[in-house]
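Q: Could you fold this chain for me?
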Amino acid sequence: MSSTHLHRVDLRSGGAYLPGIDGLRAIAVLAVIIFHIEFLGFLPGGFTGVDMFFVISGYVISRSLSERAKWPLATFLLDFYRRRMLRIVPALLVMLLTCVLLSAMFVPPVWLSNQNEKTGFAAFLGLSNLVLAWQSDTYFSPRAEFNPYLHTWSLGVEEQFYLVFPGVFLLWLRYRERSVAARYLLAALAATSLAVCVAQTRSEPLSAFYLLPGRFWELAAGALLFQLIGQGERAPQRATVAALMLGAGLAMVGAGFVLADARQFPFPWALLTVAGTLLLIAGVVHRPHGSGSPLHRALAWPLLTYIGRLSYSLYLWHWPVAVFLRWTVGLESLAVQLIYAPLVLGLAAASYHWIERPMRRGLPLLRKRPGLTVASVVGVVGVSTGLSIWVANNTERLSLSTVADSYVWHAYKHYPHEPIEVVEDPALQGRQLFVLGDSHTAAYRTMLNIVSLRLGIKVVEYERGGCAVVSLLAADPAACDDWKNDALADIQARAKTGDVVFLASLRMPELAGRDWQGDEEAVFAQALGERTAQQAQGARAAADTVLAPLQAAGLTVLIDAPSPVFKAPANRCSDAFNRMNPICAPGLTVERDQELRLRAPQMHLLTILAREYPALKVWDPLPILCPGRVCSAYDEKGAPLFADADHLSGHGNRVLEPSFTQLLINLYHPL
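A: Sure. Below is the predicted structure, expressed as structure tokens.
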């Protein structure tokens, strides 16, 4: 998940320092952290702490800019960006570069991490929210928990807001008395943004969540509050009103922390948090003389305000620490949870005291030459981005994980290290192999590449993750029908009589992610029982839809029988630093009898289909991958046969290749 950083604008410069603002920051960042580590499920809506930060940021930035209203335009803008850059960028770069290095060292290149690099590179440029909006995973998806850069989305929103806001606010500062447009421009933009948010929450939820057009109104709300109340007054007669504002605001924000529904966010649930935060800020700004109400005193509690001052650094570090713990030892154990809090606090304190504060004070030259500061920061960002790209391109050299050996672990199209004995056979001349299926088609890439080199045949692949073709488990996914039909039409247009179509997909119930702490037999029975009679009928109908036209076209259809599946992913349990992760506790072996039991219904259907479709041939990898009583993700020499819980490794591909090659020779050879 994520939250907004919120870099801290020092309210000691200019107007009086408001400790309550830091108290509000502390509440926001603590809510986000509690939500992200899923502490007792205590704050299921704690992600709305981000929205608190947005509103606070809008108010505080407005207050800071108002003190420079009479400055020349160029000086006004350059000084603004100088201060923002010095307060945001140094601590952010340290965090990002650390994450890049730790990712290279400890994070295996697997499907869970395949979007991380793009997000990280974009984060250096303040664009990670755009990358995340263009992905299919939401902020709340399981895979999001393994991206150490996810939380930078809110920094991207704020940084993009700063490109627009200073000019708009300066118009209000200078011309509000003379121009209606200047007076109401920000309000009009906020209203437009809210309308965009309402529309996108339903039609484009990722854009509504991650992009500035659907979030501008939240930051603008804080700025509009400043336009309405300015820096406030310390009026004793307002003591009761201020206390009521704080009480109502806390109630609304607290309700958001508990009740906010991620499925209807930002609209309407962000409204509750934004309104509550506006009341809280107004209550803090209009505090009475003296110590104020108990709520005022609570928000000004020194420990709380110190956490508020650390909020940016806390935000920067809390998420990557949680992510790297998930990748390695896991976050589930009590010992790790006890370590987490002081580790994050220590990193945040170090970042605040050694990076944030010194850079905020800045060197005299940086204060006097804002243009030089801006140019220098841009240059440092460029160098840092280049360094991160170099690290990403040299992961195999830097990694401490065995999984970094892509030749062994990953089913890429590596050119074989081993010598290839080419088969010279006239029957293979001009032959084609068409391969169609889900990610398990991609998991055969190494084998298919070797086959193409050895036999001299052309291999044409059609693969899409999650789009099984003739899964034998249930009907093929309806969302993939257009893609599948286009692929089949292309095959029929390009294929010649006697060519082979290889349908490769997952055809076993997945075992990973199930609760293996109790009765294992009950879990296997549950997995076996998930295939209903209706699903069996759908599986048969889907098979007929694919096999009939291919057979009619004179093509040979090859299906791989279900391969072993495992309870844990091998690529996350292969190293000393992650073997103790709770995800690895179920182990990487399964009794062969259980595998055979799980695939029995699919094998029964395959037998029926083979009788009815003479063009259908079955290739069974299981006896090769599991020759003994127990199936293992590793072979007898300790090399991985599987990259995760059900996809083949590069080594597994090479183990299977001789069998597959011989089968193809037999299929292509004229009878």
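A (continued): The beta strands are 432-437, 458-463, 500-504, 556-560, 589-591, 616-619, 630-632.
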